[in-house]
Each structure stands twice: as structure tokens, then as C-alpha cells.
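@channel sequence for tomorrow's demo:
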Amino acid sequence: MTATNKDILERANAAVARGDYEEFLSFCTDDVQWVFVGDRTLNGKAAVRAYIEATYKQPPRFDVERTIAEGDSLAALGHITLKDDKGTDVRYAYCDVWRFREGRLAKLQAYVIAEKE
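C-alpha cells (generated this afternoon):
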């Protein structure tokens, strides 16, 4: 694993956790793509920004348990907690597989499952 890619992702996630979504987007390529496997695909920063603004009622809480890297890809496994429309915490298990290009987040394949209470 390159320390650089792990560091980039950690800094980007820290920006999201602080609610600084524009800083997060600065870590992304202009043509960033987010693929939520089995759900939807977002293309470009504007689409990602709109998703974040609609989904993150408050900044999410991340608990990254492990990262695994190969070449230009980095997988992060862990949990994320988001507020739903009623303000209730909802915890998800996730595996995000990121592809980097020229030191930026270029593509995300996200596998996200709501955890049972």
C-alpha cells in the first residue's frame, strides 16, 4: 500500500467528518465517479456534491477498521453512521474500493449494508 493513497483517503474522510465537503471534493478528480453497487452511479463533482448535501444531514461518523491496497486502488472496510430523515443514527457496514489517478480520488465502488439493530 502506498502511504500516499492511504494518507489522501484519511485526509479526505477527515474533511467529510468535519462537514467540510468542499475540502473533500478537492481530493477528487473533476470526473470522479461513485458507484453504489446495486443502487446508483454518480458522475462528476457536481453529482457527488448534490448527493452529499442531500444525504449527510449531519457529518457522518467513520470507523475504518482496515485498509488494503494494490497498485492504484485502496479498499477501506469499516462502518459509517448517518442520520436518517427523522434524526436517528443509522449504522452501515461498508467496503469502499477507491481508484486513484494522479494523487486524487477518481472512482469509488461502494458496497454498503445497513446493520441490523
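heads up for whoever presents: Residues 43 and 90 are 26 Å apart (CA to CA).
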